[in-house]
Amino acid sequence: MRLFVLRHGKACQGSPDELRELKQRGRDDLQRVLKSRLAELKTVTQLQSSALVRAEQTAALAANVMAFEGEVGENMHLT
Asked: What 8-state DSSP symbol labels residue 7?
């Protein structure tokens, strides 16, 4: 098994922490990183995310860039 860990991109300031969203810069940075690693990411068989809004946005963006057809799972141990 290979594990690829992706940290969320830059997020807006605010409170509560779990509701902070990605900034546009964070989205742009993520897309750049994901596209540069696309060959490696083609072997991904599952995506897991914490319940933080910015982490869910990151996972959704990753799934889109990767054309991932599976479900993005929520994992409470990743928060």
From this structure: -
In the prediction, which pLDDT does 42 show?
87
Q: Both tokens of residue 11?
A: 């997020």
Could you tell me the pLDDT band of residue 5, with boundaries at 50, 70 and 90? Answer: confident
Enter the pTM of the model: 0.89
Report which DSSP code applies to 27: H
How far apart CA 47 and CA 60 sit, in angstroms, is: 9
**Average pLDDT for the chain:** 92
Nearest to 62 by CA among 79, 16, 71: 71
- How far is the C-alpha of 70 from the C-alpha of 79, rounded, in Å? 21
27, two tokens: 């989205």
The whole-angstrom separation of Cα 21 and Cα 1 is 31
Grouping H, G, I as helix, E, B as strand and the rest as coil, residue 24 is helix
